[in-house]
Amino acid sequence: MAKDFNSQHVVDGYDVHIRKLIPGYEVVHQQIQALLKTYVNEHAHVLIVGCGTGYELGYLLQLFPNWSFTATDLSATMLDKAKHYIQPLDALHRVEFVLADVDQLKTDSIYDAALSILVTHFVPYAHKPEFFKAIVSRLKQQGVFIGFDLTAMNTDQERGMLQHICEANGLSTAQSSAMLNRLADDFYPLSEQETFEQLSSAGFASVRRFTQVLSYQGVMALKV
Predict the structure, then answer these.
(1) For 70-191, where are the alpha helices, taking DSSP H only?
(2) I want to staple 71 with a disulfide (CB 3.0 to 4.6 A). Which of 32, 51, 146, 215 is the partner?
(3) Phi-psi category of 23—alpha, beta or left, where left has phi over 0 and alpha has psi -120 to 50?
(4) Contact 121, 188 (CB under 8 A)
(5) Nearest residue to 46 via CA among 95, 100, 98, 102
């Protein structure tokens, strides 16, 4: 059964649960920060596709006080959580929250960077090409795309390794088994080659992997 991201219970427990599901969650975000500092100017406008509970948005607002953000999500419950999360930062004036998919945003090429962290693997296979094209069409020339997602697992050993590390991070055996059973309902993962091909076809160049933790992989690309 697919997870309901409109459920208040699911949203309230998300930040704790995700750290058990994703090996090296904090380290991945440190790498994303380093990429942004390297590739993006100090007065950037950044698109966050699927902002979730606002954790990612919150630390970027604090790190980059001259940046503005557009934060999208398909869940009104998630957006409300994100708004409450960043409210103490006195930075709401720097964020536009949008309850919509990326293809519903204005088509102006206005963003210096776009982040899709733990989002693309939820996009159905048939919709992925348009998803990537929608992002690239909204980036400025040489705008950077950063994604981090589950990639396709082809063997029982790969699935077993993911289960073991999630249990080491705090999931019970029942929870980790449920996670694996949900993969068919929740996820539409690509292989590394398929990811590179789709990003290139959408109009990105310099596509490369910047990190990998078991079957989770981070990629970056530039708009040509």
Answers:
(1) 76-86, 128-136, 156-168, 173-186
(2) 51
(3) beta
(4) yes
(5) 95
pLDDT value at 1 more than 80: no
Where do the structural domains in the chain lie, given as residue ranges? Answer: 8-223
pLDDT at res. 7: 86
- 8-223 maps to CATH 2.120.10.30: no
Cα separation, 74 vs 134, in Å, equals: 15
How many other CB atoms are there within 10 angstroms of residue 10's CB atom? 15
Q: Which two tokens stand for residue 117?
A: 């962290």
Which spans in 117-172 are helix H? 128-136, 156-168
Host H or E run for residue 53: none
Please tell me whether the overall predicted TM-score, pTM, comes out greater than 0.90 for this model.
Answer: yes
Distance (Å, rounded) from C-alpha 80 to C-alpha 99? 10
Amino acid (1-letter code) at residue 49: V
The pLDDT, as a whole number, for residue 52 is 93
